[in-house]
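Trying the structure run again after the queue cleared.
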Amino acid sequence: MAKLLMVLRHVPEDEVEEVRALLDAHGIGHYQTEPSRWGVSHGGLWLAEDGDHAAARALLDDYQRQRQARAREQAEQDRREGREESFVDQLRREPLRVLAAVAAIVALLALMALPAWLLWP
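Done. C-alpha cells:
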C-alpha cells in the first residue's frame, strides 16, 4: 500500500526534483500527485511500497538537514556581503504591495480593537 512521504505545499520545484533523484538513486519506488484545481489538496510525494518508508524517511531527514545547512550558509554569506534584502529594499522594489500589506495590518488591528473601543465608557 502507498504511504505519503511528503506534502508538496510550499516546496520549491528544485527540492522536489532533488528528493525524487535521491529516491531513484536508492531504488525506492515513488510517484507524485499533483495539487487539485481548487487548492483543496496540495499534492504529495508517495512511496509505492509501505516497507520503504523507514529508509526513505531517514534519507529525507538527512537530505533536509543538509539543505537547511546550505540555506543558512547562503543566508549568512548574503548577510556578510550586504546582499540581504531589507524592508526598505522591498519598499523600494514593490511600494504598492508593501503599503497594501501595511494598510491591511492596520485595518485588521483596528477591527480587532473596535469592540473594546465601543465598550469604553
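The chain has a mean pLDDT of 94. Worth checking whether this holds up in the mutant runs.
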